[in-house]
Amino acid sequence: MIEAQDLTKTFRDKKRGEIHAVDAVSFRAQPGQIYGLLGANGAGKTTTLRLLATLLKPTRGSAVVDGYEVTREPEKVRTRVGFLAASTALYGRLTAREMIAYFGRLNGMSDAALQARIQQLADELDMHEFLDRRCDKFSTGMKQKTSIARTLVHDPAVMIFDEPTLGLDVMTARTIVRFVRDCRSRGKTVVYSTHVMSEVEKLCDVIGIIHNGRLLAEGTLEQLRSRYGETDMEEIFIKVVGAPHS
Ligand SMILES: Nc1ncnc2c1ncn2[C@@H]1O[C@H](COP(=O)(O)OP(=O)(O)OP(=O)(O)O)[C@@H](O)[C@H]1O
Fold first, then answer.
1. Cut 0.90: pTM above it
2. Of 45, 192, 195, best ligand 1 pocket probe by most atoms within 8 Å of the beta carbon
3. Domain count, the chain
4. Phi/psi of residue 42, each to 5°?
5. Distance CA 123, CA 203 (A)
6. Chain centre distance of CA 80
7. How wide is the angle at C-alpha 88 spanned by C-alphas 82 and 89, nearest 5°?
8. What's the complex ipTM?
9. Do the beta carbons of residue 132 and residue 95 sit within 8 Å?
């Protein structure tokens, strides 16, 4: 479970002045649920996720992740969260299997547990073909699958995905979306950020629309459809954030 309350992050930038990247955001994501954070470029998605994963400290507000508060017990939070960031890096000289195992050991996993888990992740993410190849020769899709596997090797209760299908082909994206659904069916709390309307329609149980750092609307797809009188997510999104100035 994640409970964010009045979560706020303000950056001070020499040129731009004060930037309200995340502005009093409150939401709750439950186990067995995919919470979709939908927003355009610069809306505040990544900053929100980084606050939840304790990579940034909030300027104000709080977030409780699997029972632990992000500023009071960040180490505890980190053991409970798997965060797939857009920039999750791999070591080129390691194979995918070595890479995943390395992060598993960092998380205190035994060799037996690791073997079983790598097998499971390779099955679910369709990785067997390249599991023993070096990461520096990987396609974007192979890299992304390896990043997901290494991020989630310790099977955390809370899984945070920052635009995980960005730049991937249809087949690879589908494998990842199926994997995210499997996480939900295993009772994980999943937060999934995207700017792709069709992804939230297909995947997310609750959708939060974020714009200029503020959570402007939230609900199930059905609730948003009836509230805004539109069936298409793109139309709902435009109604919520306002049409762009031309
Ligand atoms: N370290 C930082 N210093 C200053 N400003 C920042 C910093 N990180 C993010 N911002 C600003 O905060 C705002 C929100 O950025 P954020 O990356 O959270 O958005 P996003 O929704 O993830 O967008 P994108 O899809 O483009 O990654 C933007 O205006 C961004 O320029």
1. yes
2. 45
3. 1
4. 80, 10
5. 21
6. 14
7. 130
8. 0.96
9. yes
